[in-house]
Amino acid sequence: MNRIPFIFFITGILSPLPLFLMTIFILFYPASVSIQKLIISFVSYAVILLSFTGGINWILAIQKPILYLQSESEEINKKRMLLTISPCIIR
């Protein structure tokens, strides 16, 4: 079994961090200030994160898991993994 590339591991671990930070900001934001944009950002990021997770699950469901492929195709797999996360980053 191949290991997950470090950059993808770190990206996966840190991806919920903005949700936690936005939750803290929403909870402790001064009541006199409108927090509509922050709530919209929170919901938008949560939807993107959910769609990304669903996309990964879909990929793993319809083909051989890309984390277990042979080493000669490892470069192609890295490009495919980057391609799957690019819509979430570009948004």
UniProtKB/TrEMBL annotation:
Stretches that traverse the bilayer: 6-31, 38-60
Name of the protein in question: DUF3429 domain-containing protein
Top-rank taxon: Bacteria
Record the organism. Commensalibacter melissae
Key words of the record: Membrane, Transmembrane, Transmembrane helix
